[in-house]
Amino acid sequence: MTTLPKPRQPELKTALPGPKTASIMERDSQHLSTSYMRPYPFVPDHGEGVWLTDVDGNTMLDFFAGIAVSTTGHAHPHVVKAVQEQITKFTHVCLTDYPQEITTSLAERLVKHVEKPGEKWRVFFSNSGAEAVEAAVKLARNHTGRQHIISTMGSFHGRTYGAITLTGSKTKYKRGFGPLLPAVSHVPYPNPFRPPLGSTAETCGQAVLDHIEGLFVGILPADEVAAIIVEPMQGEGGYIVPPADFLPGLRALCDKYGIMLIFDEVQAGMGRTGKMFSFQHFDVQPDIITSAKGIASGMPLGALLAKESVMTWPVGSHGSTYGGNPVAAAAAHSTLDLLEGKVQHPGCGANLMDNAAQVGEFIMAELKGMQAEFPFLGDVRGRGLFIGLEFVKPDGSPDGALRDRASMAMFERGLLNLDCGEAVIRISPPLILTREEAATGLEIMRETLRTLK
Ligand SMILES: Cc1ncc(COP(=O)(O)O)c(C=O)c1O
Questions:
Q1: Is 107 helix (H, G, I), strand (E, B) or coil?
Q2: Most buried of the four, 175, 179, 203, 271, by CB within 10 Å?
């Protein structure tokens, strides 16, 4: 085990947006795709740990990590070294045709986190989360010989055709793009704060399970369903943790009807919730897992993990030119070193998963404490450093407008953050966040919320 030297602590400095930022944003608006959103005037120049400095020298505290991606923060020396070493060896050969030791050993490391005695798993590598999701759907259809896929409302699975079809969070992802993939249905997600189907926080998991079985009676033949895909903790939909009985219930239902259970761990996985995969907070095992985002600290990599008994697609039936790229794989190895504690990040305890659990608990407790002062903070929820803060109107309905104001005001005070759901701010910082850095972020949040009262 190696311990790295303590990183320098940059000073928070905000005078946004500076002249260089404004100029780049103007050029960006002239030449880049009209589909890109530009909610915050910030153009990064370099990063260091949980801090990002823009082209004008403003330094911000990063509480969103490029949408839950930068697991090890910015420019982590261990990750940088691994990438540099690999890039001087070779950058590409094509994993579809040739094995590479660096991806073989990465697969061996990844499956160790999900394999149970007597149950072997295999890995397919992609470049992104959406590609991993596409692969999961193809595999489930190919393996079962069935077509239909059930997904959840509020979900997000990516931007490719299959993935937008499965996605259930915003209509703008689909408007004008049809026709989409056939044979996909959506069922409610059991959100304990806003229980669907007339249920309660306690009964919403069972209510959704009953709803699915109801579909099988009158609408959808269960023996035509290939898979149910679900985020074990919903990300884009609002950082929602389902009730404890939901995922095991889904497993039982899938077993009853011979349906594949796919857990999309792209956002909540890779240590973010305090365990390697978020489903590991529940007593359940899926058939297929999709991963990406945090897996390689920002290098493009996705992975589909599947039970060997399920990964039955034939030779040549699926592949990718870049998927499992050796440089991204090097970044993933070094990320795993820090997540598993093979290499220790100073000030973050034994490993980054434990750190996420502990610092996340501290943030949750502080935010829950703030609810008394700020009645518009309707719900504080999550696990580890996967935390959602839901803004509500006096009648309890979601207050998206207030959330937007809060998000921008926090940004202006130096806190990079991002919205999700209808009225939620997601807190998804790098997993190297220390308690002191968390306290700095919380102070910015508290000051901001006072101005909104
Ligand atoms: C749960 C989930 N699945 C899939 C994706 C798509 O990943 P990517 O943007 O890498 O294609 C995302 C992205 O936000 C996600 O949150």
A1: helix
A2: 271
Q: Which residues of 155-191 are buried (b: 16+ CB within 10 A; e: fewer)?
A: bbbbebebbbbbbbbeeebeeeeeeebeebebbbbbb
* Same domain assignment for residues 267 and 362: no
pTM: 0.97
If DSSP codes are grouped into helix, strand and coil, which group holds residue 44? Answer: strand
What's 13's DSSP letter? B
Do both 363 and 416 map to the same domain?
yes
The 10s digit of each residue's pLDDT in 55-99 is 999 999 999 999 999 999 999 999 999 999 999 999 999 999 999
Give residue 264 CA to ligand 1 midpoint distance, Å: 9
CA of 168 to the centre of ligand 1 (A): 13
CA of 335 to the centre of ligand 1 (A): 19
pLDDT, tens digit, 9 for 90 and up, residues 3-60: 665 655 566 666 678 999 999 999 999 999 999 999 999 999 999 999 999 999 999 9
**Ligand 1 atom with the shortest distance to the CA of 292:** 10
Contacts of 297 (CB under 8 A, 6+ apart): 69, 70, 71, 72, 76, 79, 331, 332, 334, 335
113 and 229 co-located in one domain: yes
| Inside any domain, residue 4 | no
Domain residue limits at 285? 83-340
pLDDT in tens, 229-254: 999 999 999 999 999 999 999 999 99
Q: Tell which one of 161, 189, 266 to mutate to probe ligand 1, the residue whose CB is within 8 A of the most ligand atoms.
A: 266
Rounded to the nearest integer, the mean pLDDT of the chain is 96
Atom of ligand 1 nearest to the CA of 131: 11
- The DSSP 8-state label assigned to residue 172 in this structure reads G
- Measured distance CA(399)–CA(215) in Å, rounded: 33
The last residue of one of the domains, among 285, 310, 340, is 340
Pocket of ligand 1 (CB under 6 A): 67, 128-130, 133, 156-158, 231, 235-236, 264, 266-267, 292
The values of phi and psi at residue 129, to 5°, are -65, -45
Kindly give the distance from the C-alpha atom of residue 184 to the centroid of ligand 1, in angstroms, as a whole number. Answer: 18
- SS3 for 275-342 is CCCHHHHCCCCCCEEEECHHHHCCCCCEEEEEECCCCCCCCCCCCCCCCCCHHHHHHHHHHHHHHHCC
